[in-house]
Amino acid sequence: MKMDMVNFTIRSLRPYLQRQLVDYERTKFQEILEETPNALDQTTEWIKESVNEELLSLSETTLTPGAENSSKPCLSPTLVLNNSYLKLLQWDYQKKELPETLMTDGTRLQELTEKLNQLKIIACLSVITNNMVGAITEGLPELAVRLKRISAVLLEGLNKETCNLKEVLNSIGVQTCVEVNKTLMEKGLPALNAEVQANLIGQFSNIEEEDNPIWSLIGGSSCFYWLFCFHFNLLYLAGFDL
Question: Which one has a higher pLDDT value, 193 or 63?
């Protein structure tokens, strides 16, 4: 009975406490800023970078032939924030400090960044595999799923300093050849010849190079980041633990 009364009291007070909490946090936040004026330097710089990028993008659009000219570009706060948060997915945690307002989310953001890098690499590997042996493995969706799972496992701990990406990619290439040959033999088809296998492994290992065209195409695509965010939003809404 007492527990029921306590729960009822908490539920009754919750809306009031929530309203008071917002005012309390705003007041405390303002006090911190007054005591430490430079407390948000990193956050300010983070937002400024996005503002400048969006202004540059708007200027380029205005100068494009055929575009409607306006006296002053209209900057959307939503676009600025979206761009700011997307930048966090490419954040170099070894060289740059996180914005002060996101310090408590640092671990989670690093995990998301690692997952993004994994997805980018797996996407590159899938493109190479499909290009090299797609005609041979066409109609074998279970093989593609298995290869992605193997790649994901081998790419765990990608952001660790001890991780040698080239060796990992080489291992994925070797394992990919093994799985493809195994599937082909089960279907009564000839295995990949040595030249094709060596070429496949070599292309896998070269993904990490800065001028790699496939990495540049996938890694530099803003659409990829939007799809990544959309993917995790769906998982979150579905109740998955991220």
Answer: 193
